[in-house]
Task: structure prediction
Amino acid sequence: RTVFVNGEYLPETDAKISIFDRGFLMADGVYEVTSVLGGKLIDFDGHLKRLERSLNELDMEKPSEFDDLLEIHRKLVELNGIEEGMIYLQVTRGAPGDRDFVFPDPAETRPTLVLFTQNKPGLADSPAAQKGIKVISIEDIRWGRRDIKTVQLLYPSMGKMMAKKAGCDDAWLVEEGKVTEGTSNNAYIVKDGKIITRALSNDILHGITRAAVLRFAREAQMEVVERSFTIEEAQQADEAFVTSASTFVMPVVEIDGAEIGEGAVGPVAKRLREIYLDESL
Ligand code: PDD
Result:
């Protein structure tokens, strides 16, 4: 695989970053995941805008290649022959000469920029999307700025592991009795034809797929309600699903052991997935 590190395209085995990189030592970095379908980047502009916002919120310098990111994404897709898959991009505050809690002087330390591709043939035709996934609920103990897409992913990873141990696929995070989001996706329920999802705030990541899916839903005259919901309400909903750049619209058929609706993929999630894939291609 050819990857991109600080201005260079390299074989992945030759790519190196410093052990003093603040991404490595302090999770002082932000990232984006953009999907590729039919060799085309999906929602690139949205991901770039959110990256810029994440950098701003953390007072992090833009990498010098910022204006060339579209071209770099395209070149990596081409060099690696990606038809379906993802591009991962990470910017960290760079590698000062030593470990220090104080941010390094931006005049002396440049941000580290890393991009790599993930080849995922069959992403759009995923068997999981036919069957739906099962989730457990766990307490949301992440920090208070989940709107910033940082690389602090330890708790989301632990959540996935807890789900796996319970024989499930993912976890929904719950704060003050209400679902915030999934470990790496936004969460939705459907009741009486209404699509219900938590409103945007610092409590959740402002999903790029969420924005697109809600736009398509409204264009298709489906009713969207942005409000919080409990696990109990979700268990009694007609349908549930999640969205993310890596799963598009993914139906959820079980929450904490309770089947949602008929326990199978419902019509709203199915339709939204089809619309999303059609519109994106
Ligand atoms: N995750 N919420 C969280 C906590 C996420 O990590 C993600 C994305 C989303 C969905 O955002 P988007 O639609 O922009 O992908 C919501 C990515 C895919 C990841 O970590 O791999």
